[in-house]
Amino acid sequence: MGWLWAIIVGFVLGLIAKAVIPGKQHSPLWLTTIFGILGAIVGNAVARGFGVDETPGIDWSRHIFQLIAAIIIVAFGDMLYMATLGKRKHHRTT
Hints:
Shape: elongated
Oligomer: single chain
Strand content: under 5%
Helix content: over 70%
């Protein structure tokens, strides 16, 4: 069940990150989900580093760290995608 939640949270975080980042992102949905999963993992580690391990109720601060990490990872990941595989795919379709 843990992997299913990781995929769901990664999917949601990736989509929110894509919506927040200005401009068009070209990375496919599966890659955005992976970036979101990585954002959740990194965000949890950063939150733990700031002393926010678990709180009673909803962990808003941990979720904020996860979202910020997902935004950064999606932005850089999309740049890397376009610099490598994305340009070749983009040129083939035009």
